[in-house]
Amino acid sequence: MQDAFYGTYGCNDSNTMKNRQFKRLLDLYISNEIDAKGKKTMDDFFVFFQTKNERDAFANVQEKESIRKEIFSNVVTSIKHQKRIRILSWFTRIAASIMIVFGIGYGLLRSLHNYSSTSMVTVNTRYGERRTVVLSDSSVVVLNAGSKLMYAREFSTTHRKVTLEGEAFFEVTRDSQRPFIIQSRDITTTVLGTSFSVHAYPDEYCCVTVKTGHVKVTLNDVNHQSIYLQSGEQAYLKNKGDEMEKRVVNSQLFTAWQNNHLIFNQLRFEDILKVLERNYGVKIHCSNHAIMQKQITTQYFNESLSSIIKDLQFMVNFKYEMNEDYISIY
């Protein structure tokens, strides 16, 4: 019955009762002049709203109370303006509940569903920016430059799921009843409680590197290849469609970026330029294609971009022009 009522008078504009019709039905209900069919409709609505909308749409109790008070205040003001008198307090509360769903011009109903839709949070970082995010379970995510993290404001009772585009370091609070799942481009990473990094920028390799604990990494393809990792191990995917490789690595090489420590180990010059673009918020164009595939091993700690470019110039032998936000290498 409740589902049927929601389908008739819910959030679909084409099926929603017109404001005038509903106000008429409410007036008849209040004056006790409503027929049996109308009374059943109103009774069903009150039961449905209390058991469905309030429970599902207002998971956050404090925000629920704040919205209720605001709507209640608006309804009381409206009643005074219309000089309605001798309406019992419970009728006022009924009107307040109805205003949430229908309102004037259905505005409050849309606000209610907008609140529900904002239960997902998106955090973006620009080039040259990093951000630290604390999730509802106290897990901590350090988001590298040029990345995006999407997560639920409150995790479910069965799992904790986030979506990552770019690069991040995770310190996951242990919860054996709710696995922590990271969806990122071509791979899915599942943990219970550990620390690790995920690299999944568009058009680049994917890798998951474990600092502490144990991690399961699964390919998002028809074969669903899975690799189990522990501290000091890495799952590496060079291209989409390839099989993942399991490697033994120094995890510090893949997590040092959190402390402005750039470590390049046999990394192509082309990929180093991408890292510099993200970390320093600049655009770098290289027209010298002969040097793009050269592999370089070096590291920089809290150094200026101009200092890094000069050092790379010495190793690779190129010319360049540099201004505030653009570097041309030739």
Concise account of the structure shown:
This is Fec operon regulator FecR. With 330 residues, the chain is an alpha+beta fold. Helix content is 35%, strand content 30%.
Assembly type of the shown chains? Answer: single chain
- Let me know the number of strands: 18
- Report the span from N to C terminus: 72 Å
Order of helices and strands: HHHHHHEEEEEEEEEEEEEHEHEEHEE
Please tell me how large the radius of gyration is.
Answer: 28 Å
CATH-scheme architecture of the largest domain:
Sandwich
Structural class: alpha+beta
Shape: elongated
Q: Provide a count of the helices.
A: 9
Q: Biggest β-sheet: count, sense, barrel? A: 13 strands, mixed
CATH class of the largest domain: Mainly Beta
Helical content (DSSP H or I, runs of 4+): 25-40%
InterPro entries: FecR (IPR006860), FecR_C (IPR032508), Ferrdict_sens_TM (IPR012373)
Keywords: Membrane, Transmembrane, Transmembrane helix
Pfam family, one: FecR_C
Domain Protein FecR C-terminal: 262-329
